Amino acid sequence: MSDALALKDSNSDARCLIIGASHAGSQLAVNLRKNGWTGEIVLLGSEAQLPYHRPPLSKTVMAGSKTLDNILLRPEAMYASNDITLRLASDVASIMPEQKQVVLAGGETLTYDKLALCTGARPIKLPLGDGLDGVCYLRSYADVETIRQQLEGKQRAVVIGAGYIGLEAAAVMTQLGLQVTVLERADRVLQRVTGEQVSQYFTDLHRSHGVEIVCGAEVTGINGQHVVDSVHCADGSSYPADIVIVGIGVTPETRLAQDAGLRIENGVYVDEYCRTSDADIYAAGDCASYPDARYQRRVRLESVQNANDQARIAAINICGGNAVYQVTPWFWSDQFDIKLQSVGLSDGFDEAVLDGSLDPADAGGFVIQYLRAGRLIAADCVRRPKDFMALKAKL
């Protein structure tokens, strides 16, 4: 009998705990059942809501065209039909690997045979504007509900940070009629995730819709009396604001893993099987860093694709399989009427090959292929979905 079959026959009394009920956690729970886990599955989520899609938060949910019911990952009945126990609004205080126990914030102790960490990431906070109404972060559904309430009657918004979240939020608020200024500390927008040509394209796109983009802006103050009224920068400039959205990136949620003595390396360290430094603990999603054979380095990705695919591999291996995580990463971002589709990781490229026009008014769009030593490593596509699919298959 194979190891996988042996585990499937013997796990009927076993329990797998999953900490984190977002994309990775929900996917992992469902895939455990698909791969033959017959024991108990408990999905622990810190939020009160059923697991939901996060990408729409900074787009359609913030714009008001979708509600929580429209973005649920799966209906509640699906968890019940798969005999998955959902424990929502359940914060985990600690993990005790030697005892194979998890302690909840209220003191309850849960034992496990296998444990999966899908704890995600949390927004990086600025040490500014504490206690002021109108200073917002955007990560959860509750965050977006707060932002929507704050937006009522507002005219001027400042977004701090020009990554995907910041630019998506800027686009939505502009379409809602606000005057928006984006302040970015780096020399260009989207600097962490793409090349200069795409950065310029999205700068031009936002400016064509009336968004003020200011790069090289070092924010030194978020000011106001009880309610925010302005943002100040190191060069002495000041920007009036009725609402401020801070989107300066996220940091992997590793506290539980670190306190439990697990290896940490830009996230929870996992091997190619999504297994941590403890053989009975796995990790997937934004919190996990893994070895990528294609790019010859450890990688930690913040994407739905990575969360779903990594969770699928972790589930296979928890059930006794031997699957290796090696998937081509891909991403997308919707801003105004433009969808950016990216595949691969472009950092370290030495050549960029453009096909098409970088003029936002050109309906033909463009493709930029990123090469290193003559080999394709990534691509960015705008208004070219067929090219994106072809390049995704090629990579």
UniProtKB/TrEMBL annotation:
<dbReference type="InterPro" id="IPR016156">
    <property type="entry name" value="FAD/NAD-linked_Rdtase_dimer_sf"/>
</dbReference>
<dbReference type="Pfam" id="PF14759">
    <property type="entry name" value="Reductase_C"/>
</dbReference>
<protein>
    <recommendedName>
        <fullName>FAD/NAD(P)-binding domain-containing protein</fullName>
    </recommendedName>
</protein>
<dbReference type="InterPro" id="IPR028202">
    <property type="entry name" value="Reductase_C"/>
</dbReference>
<dbReference type="GO" id="GO:0016651">
    <property type="term" value="F:oxidoreductase activity, acting on NAD(P)H"/>
</dbReference>
<dbReference type="InterPro" id="IPR023753">
    <property type="entry name" value="FAD/NAD-binding_dom"/>
</dbReference>
<dbReference type="InterPro" id="IPR036188">
    <property type="entry name" value="FAD/NAD-bd_sf"/>
</dbReference>
<keyword id="KW-0560">Oxidoreductase</keyword>
<dbReference type="InterPro" id="IPR050446">
    <property type="entry name" value="FAD-oxidoreductase/Apoptosis"/>
</dbReference>
<keyword id="KW-0274">FAD</keyword>
<feature type="domain" description="FAD/NAD(P)-binding">
    <location>
        <begin position="15"/>
        <end position="311"/>
    </location>
</feature>
<dbReference type="GO" id="GO:0005737">
    <property type="term" value="C:cytoplasm"/>
</dbReference>
<dbReference type="Pfam" id="PF07992">
    <property type="entry name" value="Pyr_redox_2"/>
</dbReference>
<keyword id="KW-0285">Flavoprotein</keyword>
<feature type="domain" description="Reductase C-terminal">
    <location>
        <begin position="330"/>
        <end position="392"/>
    </location>
</feature>
